[in-house]
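Run log, item B.
One chain of 92 residues. Sequence copied directly from the ordering sheet:
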Amino acid sequence: MNLRDFQQQLVRLDNENTLAFRNTLRKLLQLEWNQVYRDSGLNWELIQGQPKNVEDRLYTIRVTQKFRAVVSRDGAWMVFHRLNADHDGAYT
């Protein structure tokens, strides 16, 4: 969570989205990676057009029906790159 763009987006969230994001983080802390990939609530999705190198790929996870986070995996860590209150904005 050290990426500057992510931090700026996080502090700009309204109360409803802040609560939803916090609940998503709580859920993630309870899951193993294989559960994250399969969880239908999180809906882990590869953003199309990504590099072939798996380490450089970006994915989205669902925070709410309209709100998604752009993430990547770095070993055992999930790296948050962006928060998109506009669902479709996560894919551009």
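Observations after the first pass:
- The chain has three helices and four strands.
- The two ends are 20 Å apart (CA to CA).
Flagged for discussion on Thursday.
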